[in-house]
Design a protein that fits this description.
Chains A, B, C, D: It comes from Vibrio xiamenensis. Chains A, B, C, D: Belongs to the NAGSA dehydrogenase family. Type 1 subfamily. Chains A, B, C, D: One of its GO terms (biological process) is L-arginine biosynthetic process. Four copies of one chain form a homotetramer. The first copy, chain A, is an alpha/beta fold and 333 residues long. Chain A folds into two domains: 163 residues, NAD(P)-binding Rossmann-like Domain (Rossmann fold, 3-Layer(aba) Sandwich); 152 residues, Dihydrodipicolinate Reductase, domain 2, CATH 3.30.360. Chain A has eleven helices and 14 strands. The two termini of chain A are 20 Å apart.
């Protein structure tokens, strides 16, 4: 049994991780932590997330002595803010822990990226260079080999799973930038009280136009420019991404079908649909549903995921399964 | 034209009042105010409430010199916290303004009520004694005569409009307390950022069981005990109240029908339905819909209102119309 | 492995059952059926319920030869209309199947009940008499012994789990009828297209006042009269029931606490909360959350369940686990 | 007073029209009609649309004698299916009525359009040729002059109001087709019971990809190709359209600002926002909110409207006001 620690257990992704660790036959939950000054420290996780009562009732503890926690952990999930992950990950890594980081701190191996999009200079270039990017269906070998797995963001997961088969197969005319329109549920903003997230203020609208940090994450890993426009939707969970692309001259509908089907034929968590995906079919599931259609020289691909699961926690657990050689779906269904 | 001032214009009820004042042919909007230290001071009201753009674009000003504002106002709406209304109302009243207070500061003429349920000693017993309780369909003469009108709370409006016809007609066995179950939209909690109001945390649940301050407000004005259980619902606007009562021996369905129909036959804003009321029929309207059913010795009456309108702002404007003798529906439809 | 058949697999409860059967280590899914003339016959269940893709992809077959299906089944779930269950259950029972019926066809052992509330004469008084009422936390021995288990309705499950501890302990003054106000999600009406269930028409409202067939089901099994007022809520899943009762003279808060805690201290699927229950904590879970409060001679108890799970499918599976002696939570979490 | 008739009064747009006709000081409601075989014929419109009670309570009558109705009408709103409008409009026009058609029957002056996208041959080429396209902010003179006004569809209104200023000013590189992603509320599908519109089945998803009939309507009136991807959203009312376009070389942010501001500076129902538009700011209003942002050679413009009002009924009434010379906002606010 691998001793498994969750840092950032008061948030929505931390709660999902806790449930999965409890279900996992090879993991044992060795500790739930929040930052030392959090008002939630000392409470039961089920007091913060009522749905966990009777499933996980452990207390969330203040993270005061990181080294002590590291010594008692084999696997560490970091469901923490970017800067916190940036600072904590190296400590756990140096103690030999396997680290699955759900933040953006180790996703893009480019020194200019962090000051520009995250507002801090990256201090751990070595770990950054050796981190695997945990897009589970695409980076199996890296996930197996790395000690640090940077789990992709929610929008990048939905977007890349839809676009990557076509770009990798050389079917897209990337001179004309793919246009990604995506709508996220409100849990994507985290568990906190803001006017933007107030029930009375939420209604569909675009935000972060041309400035969202997930745009360069997507571009960096796809290897092409994209236009990414996120929207806030009036639902709690899920992301729907609709992507419009120009195909290279001569690319047929059959070429598109083959590229997508080949990419995912052995991947049980990506479901290729005959129709366009529906958000509710993936909410509270670890799946990514993909639908697509070609007309003339354009293709539209749509993908749907649960932002907290395939866009965060269940993909992190999927990376655990891949890394340690457990069946890929363990604790996910 | 009556110069009309709204204090507390940054909140949801303030915004609704501003729209109605603009529509009212006999009122002119002379000022929108927020507390002097509010972060909203100086902004356009349409920046706070985007739907007002092009309708009301005036700035909300910091309320620094109350007396100066009072001198320039004929009509004052107080859409302010209870303690603020308690302190401000007398200043406006002493300058001769007609004051329509949407808070709880002058609703119950009982000195023990305020320390117990609002946490402060009432300092203005004289004004409290002379305030009209603005339940518009029932207190027409008092609303005409008073200088200060205490507009009822949202739950009390929905509850009393449903119960009062039967209690006044002497049909209810009040030894067995009427049971009021009511569900309110989230705007009822005001415009602010809290975890309770966070989009991701809102789902149907009871709150304030046996302790909500609207219970004694209802009991006081009905003249009988009630059990009042409020719930938070997953919608923005509206209240549905479902009330179960025991009838006195021998009371028939016809007696109930007569009492309800007689009470409201000349009241255009109360609609007696053949069926039970639906929340969406009253959302964003000034109406109260009422439905009822008798079986054996029990009656169930349900009522639905928009909590921000008939439960606050439009009832305040209805009181203005009654007080000054304008047609009752002016600016309401 | 027990061969398990689901009749009525095109509905919402059928889909939930299919997922649980797949997860259950002692059950094997031997067939999904719909009525012979259903337009859904022949389709994959994942075409009807997109979220099942990759989990259960079996076709739903037309039920043409009931006897043949019975011969190949050890366990049968009937997720069918009342009349259909009434006709089908005896066939399966006579072939030795264990039948778990989610309809109302065998819930109330009273010959007058069916003509009055379901519109048909019951033809199978023998089976009716011997059916266990599958309120899992209360009727363990009957569920173990019976060949036919009538799984309670969604409202009756929520209501009885809240009321029964107090009535059984003799704490309630039932001369004054308990008042049950309950709000259900729209899935409670089944998977079909009606104006009432149209997205644009749904908003909170009472329905079936004094006439809902769940009222006599509740009264019959509690052994006291109740007033039951159901409401339709603007959410997909879940029921919240708020119950107001008068306590017998001299009953204390401690008495109430003891009755409730004693009733459920060994029951892992009922969670007694310090606060009132929240709907979202039970949605998509098999739990029932209960909260309560006493003031003077009144008690308010609220309970929340997922209407499709604890109110139907997961309680049916819980009965399977009890009947066959599997751990009670198998396939439920 | 102009005698005003609404055909198709049982639908959502018909109900909105009825409210506006009642408010309009120059119009008198002379009749509400539904098709002769409708089950709604004979009912009060307030029975179909509960929110109208006390505002419009007229009966909806079966349309049996079109000529007789035409003789008693000055203004006719057709809130009817495309084929019905196609057949009815000429009858009313020949009797001298002014016809405001909310269907697609007269929107595109192209004989091939109707067989391809609406499934019928157009029989009234003369009226089609002389119809004004009622995009109110752009076609004032045509709306003044024509006897038949074809009010644009909901998606085309939102899309064109956002795109047209830039295309008309010659700023867009239309070689690269503008990409329109739009999300509509469920009322856009009309008032009817279908599985697609069932409360339990609605969740965000694309539909009609590459095949929606609003795509050629938009292209035809803009004069350039577009890619239009509609989505169904989990809300009742409103449309948000997000449009991505490539600018011609050398076009600056200032050029874009000038084009948009110039287009609407005298148009009170189009509100140019500093930020991206929010759906709830336009729900139940006649406004179109527009926001935009430029980066490099791309521009993103987003627009929001209420699909039943600016996307249908209030734009029809705006056309009435323009046609007859009433103040543009009459009966709209």
């Amino acid at each position: 049994m691998l001793k498994t620690t969750i840092i950032g257990a008061s948030g929505y992704t931390g709660a999902e991780l806790a449930i999965m660790v409890k279900k996992h036959p090879a993991l044992t939950l060795s500790g739930l932590y929040v930052s030392a000054n959090s008002l939630d420290a000392g409470k039961s996780i089920a007091e913060l997330h009522g749905q966990l009562a009777g499933i996980v009732d452990d207390a969330v503890l203040p993270l005061t002595d990181v080294e002590a926690v590291a010594k008692q952990s084999d696997v560490v999930f970091l469901a923490t803010a970017h800067e916190v992950s940036h600072d904590l990950a190296p400590v756990f890594l140096e103690h030999g822990c396997k680290v699955f980081d759900l933040s953006g701190a180790f996703r893009v191996n480019n020194s200019e990226f962090y000051p520009t999009f995250y507002g801090f200079e990256h201090q751990h270039g070595g770990w950054l260079e050796n981190a695997a990017y945990g897009l589970a269906e695409w980076n199996v070998q890296q996930i197996k080999d790395a000690q640090l797995i940077a789990v992709p963001g929610c929008y990048p997961t939905a977007s890349q799973l839809a676009i990557k088969p076509l770009v990798e197969a050389g079917l897209v005319d990337t001179q004309q930038w793919p246009v990604i329109n995506a709508v996220s549920g409100v849990t994507g903003a985290g568990r906190k009280a803001t006017m933007t997230n107030s029930f009375c203020e939420v209604s569909l609208h675009p935000y972060g136009v041309f400035t969202h940090r997930h745009q360069p994450e997507i571009s960096s890993h796809l290897g092409c420019d994209v236009i990414f426009t996120p929207h806030l939707g009036n639902f709690k969970r899920g992301i729907l991404a609709t992507i419009t692309m120009k195909l290279k001259a001569g690319v047929s509908e059959q070429d598109v079908a083959k590229a997508i089907n080949d990419a995912y034929k052995e991947k049980p968590l990506v479901r290729i649909k005959n129709a366009m995906p529906q958000l509710q079919n993936v909410q509270k599931t670890p799946f990514c549903d993909i639908g697509w259609k070609v007309q003339g020289e354009h293709v539209i691909v749509a993908s749907a995921i649960d932002n907290l699961l395939k866009g965060a926690s269940s993909q992190a657990m999927q990376c655990v399964n891949i890394h340690f050689g457990y069946p890929e779906l363990t604790a996910l269904l």
